[in-house]
């Protein structure tokens, strides 16, 4: 319907002003309602170039083809007006702060009233904000708004005056609506459908072209992803080797140094390495001399027997278990 309103308004803008509206109908009408009076008794006036002109009572109005905007003036049934003081920080979300004040100061909730406010003063020294708050319960004007709708009128602004003062409430949801001929409505509907169909069709065509281009590039993309995965795996493997070498030391360097340190007729039956500490199990003609040789080697530090030395079964040598640490500057 928004498109229809825009389309009709565009057509009307092409009509000369003298033909667009009857004389005296170029300003919004005013509906004045008194407190306690029935809605049908509200007085309607038209502000024109020659001044205000009485149009009669609301109950006498016939509904027209065009919903006309009016200003609703309430006399004797004014808004509830309060002066509230808020922290200056409340200005960032003043609507929420005022909703809380409405719940606190009135028997209504924020959803049950029309609200308007005016910032009266800012006290920067004390960090306060002085606000004039006015609320108008929707229930007070529900029958009057329904009567306006029955007469083909829509309130765009409400002016409520009472002993506490006057407050003006805007009704942004009210707007002019038109009844259009069926042929024009059908034409506008067809244009609307066309306007709604073109963007999705263009988008679908663009998506089809994009899918075709993506399908053509799919083999290259898969090859690139496979290469990227292989390179990432190799990088992770090298990183793991580097981390393990940094933690345990260079195994090849340790084996080379042990080969040089072991004297003739000495051999190892077991070798383990954990956190740069090597445990050597084996047999040697002189186990004590082997500890001395390891202590003299620059690649090792703190050699010591991990278990008592025993003689081999054939009596040809010492069975030993030696624990030795790899030096940090030589490991890895």
UniProtKB/TrEMBL annotation:
TM helices/strands, residue ranges: none
Gene3D superfamilies, A to Z: 3.30.420.380
Pfam families: PilN
The name this protein goes by in its record: General secretion pathway protein L
């Amino acid at each position: 319907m928004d498109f229809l309103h825009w389309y009709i308004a565009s057509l009307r803008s092409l009509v000369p002003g003298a033909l667009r509206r009857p004389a005296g109908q170029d300003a919004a009408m005013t509906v004045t309602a008194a407190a306690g009076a029935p809605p049908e008794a509200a007085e309607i006036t038209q502000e024109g170039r020659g001044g205000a002109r009485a149009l009669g009572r609301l109950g006498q109005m016939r509904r027209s083809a065009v919903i006309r905007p009016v200003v609703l003036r309430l006399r004797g049934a004014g808004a509830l007006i309060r002066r509230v003081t808020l922290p200056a920080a409340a200005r960032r979300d003043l609507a929420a702060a005022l909703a809380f004040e409405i719940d606190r100061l009135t028997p209504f909730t924020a959803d049950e009233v029309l609200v308007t406010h005016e910032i009266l003063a800012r006290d920067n020294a004390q960090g306060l904000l002085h606000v004039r708050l006015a609320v108008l319960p929707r229930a007070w004007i529900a029958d009057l708004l329904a009567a306006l709708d029955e007469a083909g009128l829509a309130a765009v602004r409400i002016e409520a005056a009472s002993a506490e003062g006057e407050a003006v409430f805007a009704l942004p949801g009210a707007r002019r609506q038109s009844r259009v001929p069926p042929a024009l409505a059908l034409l506008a509907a067809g244009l609307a459908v066309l306007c709604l169909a073109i963007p999705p069709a263009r988008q679908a065509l663009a998506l089809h072209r994009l899918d075709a281009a993506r399908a053509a590039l799919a083999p290259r993309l898969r090859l690139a992803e496979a290469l990227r995965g292989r390179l990432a795996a190799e990088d992770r493997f090298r990183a793991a080797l580097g981390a393990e070498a940094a933690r345990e030391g260079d195994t090849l360097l340790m084996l080379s140094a042990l080969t040089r340190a072991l004297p003739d007729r000495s051999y190892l039956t077991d070798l383990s390495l954990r956190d740069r500490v090597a445990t050597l199990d084996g047999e040697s003609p002189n186990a004590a001399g082997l500890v001395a040789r390891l202590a003299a080697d620059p690649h090792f530090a703190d050699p010591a027997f991990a278990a008592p030395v025993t003689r081999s079964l054939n009596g040809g040598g010492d069975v030993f278990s030696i624990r030795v640490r790899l030096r940090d500057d030589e490991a890895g």
